[in-house]
UniProtKB/TrEMBL annotation:
GO terms for molecular function: 3-oxoacyl-[acyl-carrier-protein] reductase (NADPH) activity. Belongs to the short-chain dehydrogenases/reductases (SDR) family. Keywords: Oxidoreductase. This is 3-oxoacyl-[acyl-carrier-protein] reductase. It comes from Frankia alni (strain DSM 45986 / CECT 9034 / ACN14a). Pfam families: adh_short_C2. Its EC number is 1.1.1.100. The gene is fabG. Transmembrane segments: none annotated.
Amino acid sequence: MLGLARAGATVVVGHQRQTEEAESLRRELKDTGGDHLLVQADVADPAQITELIEATGTHLGGLDIVVNSVGTISHIPYADLPLDAWTQVLATNLTATHLVTQGALPLLGESGSVVNIGSGAGVVGVPLRAHYTAAKTGLIGLTRSLSKELGSRGIRVNLVSPGVIETDQAAGMPEAARTAYTNRIPLGRLGEADEVAAVVLFLASDVSSYVNGATFTVDGGI
């Protein structure tokens, strides 16, 4: 979101909890000089998604860009995977994207760009994450279907699929795992959040006006 704001967009950001990270983002957005808005909303709850969409419409009046960047993950052997864990991960990683995009359609009108954030797991599969992988693979299908259905309205829908990126979660990765990933990545390092944001900015802008239904992997070649 910071990349879009710094490029001149006015952004509305949904965040799950009131945390120091959310407050830090609020301060950084304020520094860009735009009339930005942060809305606390748990996208696993359809009612809160509705409130987020309504707040967006009130604040902006309409939308040019929707970025669906949300996710949750757990590591559970498939034989032991309980239904509630499956349902929670699918609701957050896939259903929320559907509900946000569908709810945003009236605000997008007859043009716009939807960028969904997936994961390399959705392409290759990952042990102990069958539910997460299924959700991220579902995003690929959702993106391709919507690109065909909404394209006639001038709405482009694309997917960004990051690899292993330097995040708070990655910071807690065991050193052996970090080394294993680094050795498999041809560029020899983990990615940076700004490198993913740059691809999102490309897809959100008019520079990519003929790009629709595409998946962009940002994974260093792994």
